[in-house]
Design a protein that fits this description.
InterPro entries: CBASS_pafABC_assoc_protein, DeoR_HTH, HTH_11, PafC-like, WH-like_DNA-bd_sf, WH_DNA-bd_sf, WYL_dom. Keywords: Transcription, Transcription regulation. The chain is an alpha+beta fold. It has four domains: 63 residues, Arc Repressor Mutant, subunit A (Orthogonal Bundle); 49 residues, no CATH class; 90 residues, SH3 type barrels (Roll), CATH 2.30.30; 82 residues, 2-Layer Sandwich (Alpha-Beta Plaits). Helix content is 42%, strand content 25%. It contains eleven helices and eleven strands. The strands form three sheets. Strands 6-5-4-3-7 form a five-stranded antiparallel beta sheet. Strands 9-10-8-11 form a four-stranded antiparallel beta sheet. β3 and β4 form a beta hairpin. α2 crosses α3 and α4 runs parallel beside α6. It is globular and about 80 Å long. The termini are far apart.
């Protein structure tokens, strides 16, 4: 079998799996996933139809398999089977208890169809992967279902009531929210939702949610997608300030771990130093407080305002320790 024919055969099989895993899938989505043209996808779909797979295609919607059509069980490669172990460990650390429990249940069903040799491989590897607990868990113990309830709220378009304690709140406050999505950053999940109390979109950090309960009340309106929200939030009245730092070579690698989070743009070597360029929306608090950890090995080239802010923070720190 030639390489091209094998690639097409593998792609058609994978398209069949995609059709089996989703109710409807668009041709463009398949084109992007397999990095081929739309014409190629149309040709592959035609081949599946000629092989007897009852595919339904609707203009502007996508492709689906006729209800009731049974496909043979899916088999997994050794590498795919081993990936299950790492993924299951990650869910135990990063998901709430209820979501992790449901994922574990789903994984048992998947493992049940594996070959005995692959089951032995998984059993051997499972004990060799250890996930250390985070110093600050992403969810409170009393809300083991915060993430799963949020996802259910999004899928059913039902309002969610949460008791949330913001960083400046003395105690938690009840909020009725309409979640549009979630994202993970810095070890925590953030729920992006329309808050009925604020009549605006807000972000709710997972470890500050003290209660969460799904209601029977439908969303009050149709909302933008989380992708649209993030793009608008990025542009909303938060101009970026360009920053240039001169960092000693021996320390530069330590900055690499977190610099993307603080707006890293580029770097270039200058002898024993590396010049790093950043773009930050907060040079009054966030950026200079991060920079304090490396201040003895870093020189601020620009802007002058950042120098002043860092100096002020350092002086306050010295005063606090001397009192």
């Amino acid at each position: 079998m030639s390489v091209d024919i094998k690639k097409r055969f593998d792609r058609i099989v994978n398209i069949l799996i995609q059709l089996q895993s989703k109710r409807v899938i668009r041709a463009q989505e398949l084109s992007d996933r397999f990095e081929v043209s739309l014409r190629t996808i149309y040709r592959d779909i035609k081949s599946l139809e000629q092989a007897g797979v009852p595919i339904i295609g609707e203009a502007g919607t996508g492709y689906s398999i006729m209800e009731g059509y049974k496909l043979p069980p899916v088999s997994f490669s050794k590498e795919e089977a081993l990936s299950f172990v790492a993924t299951e460990k990650l869910t135990q650390k990063f998901l709430d208890k209820e979501s992790a429990k449901q994922y574990g249940s789903a994984m048992l069903k998947i493992k049940s169809i594996l070959k005995n040799h692959d089951k032995d491989l998984l059993s051997t590897v499972e004990s060799q992967i250890i996930m250390r607990e985070q110093s600050m868990p992403p969810f409170l113990e009393q809300v083991p279902h915060a993430l799963s309830s949020t996802l259910e709220s999004i899928s059913l378009q039902k309002q969610l009531v949460v008791r949330y304690q913001g960083i400046q709140d003395e105690e938690g406050r009840l909020r009725t929210i309409e979640p549009i999505g979630i994202y993970h950053d810095g070890g925590f999940w953030y729920i992006v939702a329309y808050c009925l109390y604020r009549d605006d979109f807000r972000q709710f950090r997972s470890d500050r949610i003290q209660e969460a309960s799904l209601t029977d009340q439908n969303f009050s309106k149709k909302h933008i997608s989380i992708a649209e929200y993030i793009e608008k939030h990025r542009q909303k009245n938060h101009p970026k300030t360009r920053i240039k730092l001169l960092v000693a070579n021996r320390l530069a690698n330590y900055l690499k771990w977190e610099r993307k989070h603080y707006g890293f743009v580029s770097e270039k070597n200058i002898g024993d130093f590396i010049e790093m360029t950043f773009e930050s929306r907060d040079i009054e608090n966030e950026f200079p407080r991060w920079l304090m950890m490396f201040a003895d090995f870093v020189k601020i080239l620009e802007p002058v305002e950042l120098k002043r802010n860092l100096t002020t923070l350092l002086q306050r720190s010295i005063e606090n320790q001397s009192n």
